[in-house]
Amino acid sequence: MTSPRSPFPATGRSWTDLQSEIRSRSGQDLAWRDGRTPLFVFRNDQATYEVGRDAYFECFSENALGRKRAFFGIASMEQDVLDFGLDLFNAPEGGAGAFTSGGSESIFIAMKAARDAHRARVGQGAGTRLNIVVPITVHPAFDKAADAMDLEMRRAPLRDDYRVDPIAMAELIDGNTAAIVGSAPCFPHGVIDPIEELSEVALAYGTWLHVDACVGGWIAPFFTRNGRPTPDFDFRFPGVRSISADLHKFGFCPKPASTVFYRDEADLERATFKADAWPSGSFSTATLAGTRPGGAVAGAWAVLNYLGEEGYRDAAARLAAMVDQYCEGIEAIEGLRLWSRPDVSIINFGSDTLNILAVAERMMARGWLPGLTRTPRGMHAMLSMLHDGQAREDYLHDLRACVEDVRSDPMQTSKLEAVY
Ligand SMILES: Cc1ncc(COP(=O)(O)O)c(C=O)c1O
């Protein structure tokens, strides 16, 4: 049944009244601050959160679309953020990037650049249907981009370690392949695809390799610098041509904020949309969005400068310690096992003997939003510091209780299905 349509407000209301209603409506949300949601929200610590929020509101009204003509402060902060990313990802001289609203936009615009680069290389105009070759675990943002740009999605299977099989990827490439993709890490299993091998494939076939580091980009390098190596995924591999990396996930910056980087500024130019046919003169953007929040740029700039390498290394160390505690806690519960060792902070676990969906259903009844995967059947969580401390203890306590409950239930049925 659809809910009745809200009529347009006949009169205005006071801010006090509105604020109280906002709070009451938000009060209906899951208790995400207590770590009850396994995705959607990210946190380092309260101080970082406040720096991001306050910086956001310093530039609340500024529009990053006008950065070249009006908002020079936003332009310079945006360039700093992009420079930091080019440095972090070891981009060669001449590398370039763009600040976007999120992973989906970074991915979309990189796929547009790859499509246009392919067309330029083979001298083809529109008309030939191109394809992109991706791991089966790639984020649906690629499906969305492919759908909008009429690209065929070719999905490659995984190896036993849940990383994509580079040989299977190579077998799917043909003369119409605009790009191949690897994730760092992939969302479902939390492992980083073999980017070095994919880079070799890309070079051998002359295709574009995009690395989707939306989750790991801004934090995984600091795991490595802390002496807990995560597989490398950046421009040091010569076949890597573009990288998407979200600031609003493990960069701990306010939403909406992501970045996309290109090895060569000519590719940023390809990503750039230009129009000149209307009465108001030339228009161009290196993003899908037109108007963009200045606050997101100021927020990201402030958080990156507030934390610096030292702060991100500290965050990475705390994140790693917490992930280990989750892994140990889960493996200590009889019947459960991790499907893969997390490369960063996504965990996925299931069971050979219990119906994990029945466990997840019971966790839901206890107020936890369970993340689920279909293959293998697993419970999934993208952990940030929201999930530490009491949240971790409560989660593992309830998980143990739910597993016991399911073990004693011979039916072990569940109506749950994996939903993102
Ligand atoms: C690996 C990966 N890529 C891309 C995205 C899309 O990011 P966004 O939701 O910011 O568009 C996500 C989101 O979780 C992701 O996990």
Order of helices and strands: HHHEHEHEHEHEHEEHEEHEEHEEH
The rounded distance between the terminal residues' Cα atoms is 23 Å
Number of strands: 13
The biggest sheet, with number of strands, parallel, antiparallel or mixed sense and barrel status, is: 7 strands, mixed
| CATH homologous superfamily designation of the largest domain | Type I PLP-dependent aspartate aminotransferase-like (Major domain)
Count the domains.
2
Taking all Cα atoms into account, the compactness measure Rg is 23 Å
- The portion of residues assigned to helices is 25-40%
Model description:
The chain has 420 residues and is an alpha/beta fold. It folds into two domains: 53-305, 3-Layer(aba) Sandwich (Aspartate Aminotransferase, domain 2), CATH 3.40.640; 309-407, Aspartate Aminotransferase, domain 1 (Alpha-Beta Complex), CATH 3.90.1150. It has helices spanning 15-26, 46-58, 72-88, 103-122, 141-148, 166-172, 195-205, 220-225, 265-271, 294-331, 356-365, 390-407; strands spanning 96-100, 131-135, 152-156, 177-183, 208-212, 240-246, 258-262, 273-275, 283-285, 337-338, 346-350, 371-373, 378-382. The strands form three sheets. A seven-stranded mixed sheet has the order 1-7-6-5-4-2-3, sandwiched between helices. Helix 2 (46-58) packs antiparallel against helix 10 (294-331). It is globular and about 70 Å long. The two termini are 23 Å apart. Bound molecules: pyridoxal-5'-phosphate. Pyridoxal-5'-phosphate binds at residues 102-104, 139, 141, 183, 187, 212, 214-215, 246, 258.
